[in-house]
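Appendix B: complex inputs.
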Amino acid sequence: MLESVTAVRYVAPLREGGSLPGLVEADDLGTYVVKFTGAGQGRKVLVAEVLVGEVARRVGIPTPGLAVVDLPSAIARYEADEEVQDLLTASPGRNLGVDFLPGAFGYDGSHPPSPEEAAAILWLDSYTANVDRTWANPNLLLWHGRAWAIDHGAALWFHHGWPSRPPDVGRFVEQPFDPAGHVLASVAGPVGQAHERLAPLLTEDVLGEVVAEVPDEWLETTGSLPDLDAVRSAYLEHLVRRLERPDAWLGGAG
Ligand SMILES: Nc1ncnc2c1ncn2[C@@H]1O[C@H](COP(=O)(O)OP(=O)(O)OP(=O)(O)O)[C@@H](O)[C@H]1O
Ligand SMILES: [Mg+2]
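Resulting structure:
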């Protein structure tokens, strides 16, 4: 499970984020960028953030630490901004905290990561089907001389179909990835080599640990996934089986 902290102060909204993430101080003296369960994008984007962020961490890609931030209802009551107050009121309990990287710059291409580091990030996005790392929205921060990967809510799109359909694992497993618009496409080294280096780190046990990090409250059961174990198993099966089929999704990036 992710570390749990309690919010003590809502500092400010990060208005550039589509889901209105907010800067929050917590009782561990940490400052977090919090993504709220009550945002329009729903809880599934928080699940994707945890799964992809924790996969990234396990293969050595710099990415901010993640925590569960418990939001007491009193914090919403004292918020003056109406839009923020509505969001906080809709998000009692457990939300996602992303360790705030103070002084980080948005990636603009002027300090590219090494070909190997760039290939690792392009490989991560190919594996997890993350189309949200383009020049329009780089979702990379420069901090202490390295490129840090953030914002993984758009990856692992397969779960958005679950409420109405049983999981179709094969469709996701074989979905090609088009690296053309990726912000690191022109600086990345061979992504096939990145796969050979990184995929062995993600054994089924390791991916099982990653899936276990997701808080119960964010997982949605459905008719065909009737309990939390079934939901977690479905995530694990998607991650394990796609990893076995780089021929399907590394085509464009290899
Ligand atoms: N850990 C962090 N440290 C410092 N700044 C951050 C961090 N996470 C996010 N930010 C800043 O907040 C912005 C919005 O964050 P993020 O992209 O994760 O939110 P989002 O709501 O998913 O955004 P969008 O959907 O608009 O891309 C980032 O572009 C970045 O400037
Ligand atoms: Mg973003």
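The mean pLDDT is 96.
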